[in-house]
Amino acid sequence: MGRSFAQIAFTPLVKEQQAKRGSRTQYERIEKLSPPGDALSEYEKEFILARDSFYLATVSETGWPYIQHRGGERGFLHVLDDRTVGFVDYRGNRQYISLGNLGHDDRVALFLMDYPSRTRLKILGHATVHEGEGAKQFVEQLSTSEGRKLVERAIIIRVDAFDWNCQQHITPRYTEEQIVKVMAPLHQRLAALEEENKGLREQIAGRAEAG
Ligand SMILES: Cc1cc2nc3c(=O)[nH]c(=O)nc-3n(C[C@H](O)[C@H](O)[C@H](O)COP(=O)(O)O)c2cc1C
Hints:
Blueprint: H1 3-9, H2 12-20, H3 24-33, H4 42-49, E1 53-59, E2 65-71, E3 78-81, E4 84-90, H5 97-104, E5 107-114, E6 119-130, H6 136-142, E7 151-165, H7 176-210
Helix pairs in contact: 1-3
Flavin mononucleotide (FMN) binds near residues 68, 92, 95, 97 and 98.
C-alpha cells in the first residue's frame, strides 16, 4: 500500500479501530514511510488495459454509497497518463445514478478484478464528466470499436491513490474467450484421435470381412 492510499482511507475512525485492534503501529508506518503510490506504473497500466470490466463506486448527496458494474471491450478503461484513466459512457438504462452522484461529489472508487490471476486493484480518484462539443477530443480518444452504441459522455478520472489486495478468497473464474483458447488444443487432439479411431475401426472391419 502506498502512502496516498493510506492517507485517504485511514480516516480518524478507521485509525481508531486500528488502534483498538492492534494494527495501528504497522499502518502508521505505511502512512508515513511508504512511497506515494499515486502514479500508475507500467504494471498497473498493463493490468488496467487488460480489463473488460470494473466496478465504479460513487457517493450520493444523501450519503449512500453506490456501485455500478461497467463493462466493454478489453482496454475500454484507457490509461491517459500515469495519473489519469478514462472511459466513454454509452447510452444505457438512463437512470443516470453515477452521473447524478458525480454532480454532488466527484470522488470515485474503481475496483478492478482479474479472476484468473486472482488479482484486484482499487483506485481512488476524482472524476470529471465531459459532454457535448467539449467532449469530442476525449470521445474520439476513448471510443473503442463498439461504434454501434451511442456515446453520451467521457468520464475522466484523476488518480489520487491505488492499492493492490491479496489473492485470498478470490475464486479463479474464466471468460468464455479464455476457456475457448485453453480448450482449442484439446479439441484438436480429440478430433485427431476421433479420425484415427475411425481409421482403425475401418481397418478392423475390413479385416473381419476379409476373414
Ligand atoms: C441497451 C443497454 C446497453 C448497455 N451497455 C452498457 C455497456 O456497454 N457498458 C456498461 O458498463 N453498461 C451498459 N449498460 C448499463 C447502463 O449503461 C447503465 O445505465 C450505466 O452503467 C449507468 O448506470 P447507473 O445509472 O447505475 O450509474 C447498458 C444498458 C442498456 C439498457
